[in-house]
Amino acid sequence: MIKYVAGLLLGILLGALAAATLLYFNPLAARNPLSPLSVSNNKMLSLSYSAVPTDSIVYTNNGESRVRPHPEKVRELWEAPIRHSEVLVTVIKDSRDDPAGIGIKFSSDSERTRVINGEALVDSTWHIHLVERGSLFVEQTENYWNFLRKIVLPAYLSAANHWKGTWNGNMTVGPGALGTAAVSGGTGEFSGLESEAVEAVQARAYSLSQGPVAMDGRLTIDITGNVELTATDVTGR
Amino acid sequence: MRTQFTGIARAAELFRPATACSGHAASAALQCAIRHTFTQARCAGLADLTKLGVFVVASDGLRMLKTLIFGFLLGVVGTVAAAYYVPVVDQHRESSVISVATNGGNTESFRINIPTDRIMVGAPKQAEPLPPGLRWPADEMFDGVRVELFKVRNTLDAVVGVASRMVADSDAIEDSVEWVLHLPARGTFYVTMPVQPEDGVRRVGTLRAGTREFGPMQGKVSERWVPNADADEVDAPDGYIELETSFVGAFSDDVTETALREGTL
């Protein structure tokens, strides 16, 4: 009798491993599609930032994550309703890599996350103020599945607990039907703007103990209507 | 006698039809002996002596194999079902404290205790930056920008979200106060309000955008500072910022058409 139970447990274990392997290598979930904005003829505003917490003005989370809050003594988001959230306050740069404004990114793990679909979703919003120009609000759903597969897991498997390389990925998968973020203008020249955006990251180094070591984010915002581009904005084709 | 089987012979017995070596006919024993390179007598003897044993071994192995396959399928189905149905993220929810407004819509009040709920004050040339160690960008262009981060509470004093408040003082654009309230279990909303209070006490702003629960809403948000009246209370906050929302669902043609079709209007 015991050997049958052992056999059953062994079978369950093998089955679970096989299913997990299938989910991990699911080719349908490994897509990293081209951003629809990259084939648009509209004018684009390109903003970048460093996604490394220690480069930020303030980064905070629940304090239990491997990515430590910055500065060290910042208040942590430990209360139950906000413990799956993080906040990043950083300098936003224009396409010439000059400071252009301040951006605040709120991110929370999404309850719509479904591993079976290759989704590790995060609901995030950007509150961006571009000095002398105005403010924007960007709402998006991001999918970190490919980031976890291509960067975090290899870092786990590495003997040095470190990943190094070059990985480019579009993080935005919604709420727009084409996988774009929703942009709402607030003040200044962006007042009344309703548009779309895409956020992409370029990762070059990741450490299990510190999180991102060398990683940049880029927001590409489709500017339609009455917003005039300056010399430091990137224009579309 | 079963111990006389070699490992190969055992395996052969398991995967061969039982009749191959268990027949009583001499021809069967002969075939068996040829196949196993045993003597005919030995093969016949084995067949006789282990007839039942071979059956038991084969049946036992088959049952084990079936158990293993059943377990494997159970593991696959269980993992897939768990991946589909078990929520990976379960945001904690506090009960919303919402009142119905007189002329439609609803109102909700949030508060931020100062200084306990303040996470960050980003402004130039601060003697004691919050948090300690904060380095505000040195570039002069940021001199007119002030950014604050807070934890947000409901009226029952439970933390329900985080908020940013941004004040921009600029010659190029109209000065404004902007709020973004991020409530992880519900959504986020973005409000802009003029710097000057409407009645000297309360700033009233407009809801510019919202996500999830706040997506279809429109309305107003007011901000006011309420100083702490109880001066004797030990470790009491200096006061709190009160944010009062007054939202109503945006008019939707789709909803109206559906309601007309269903006769509910």
Task: Describe the structure concisely.
The complex is a heterodimer of chains A (237) and B (265). Chain A is α+β, with helices and mostly antiparallel strands.
Descriptive report:
The complex is a heterodimer of chains A (237) and B (265). By secondary structure, chain A is α+β, with helices and mostly antiparallel strands. Chain A is built from two helices and eleven strands; from the N terminus they run H-E-E-E-E-E-E-H-E-E-E-E-E. In chain A, strands 1, 2, 3, 4, 5, 6, 7, 8, 9, 10 and 11 form an eleven-stranded antiparallel sheet that branches. The model of chain A has no long low-confidence stretch (mean pLDDT 88). Chain B has two domains: 2-85, no CATH class; 98-262, AOC barrel-like, CATH 2.40.480. Chain B has helices at residues 7-14, 19-22, 26-36, 40-49, 51-85, 253-262, and strands at 98-100, 106-114, 118-122, 145-153, 159-168, 176-183, 187-194, 203-210, 217-227, 239-249. Chain B is α+β, with helices and mostly antiparallel strands and 265 residues long. In chain B, helix 3 (26-36) crosses helix 4. Chain B has a ten-stranded antiparallel sheet with strand order 1-2-10-9-8-7-6-5-4-3, with no helix packed on it. The interface between A and B is large, with 69 and 71 residues.
DSSP E strands of chain B, number: 10
Terminal Cα span of chain A? 72 Å
CATH hierarchy, class of the largest domain in chain B: Mainly Beta
Rounded average pLDDT of chain A? 88
Shape of chain B: elongated
The CATH topology of the largest domain in chain B corresponds to AOC barrel-like
Relevant terms:
heterodimer; A: 237 residues; alpha+beta; eleven-stranded antiparallel sheet; 41% strand; B: 265 residues; AOC barrel-like; 2 domains; 6 helices; elongated
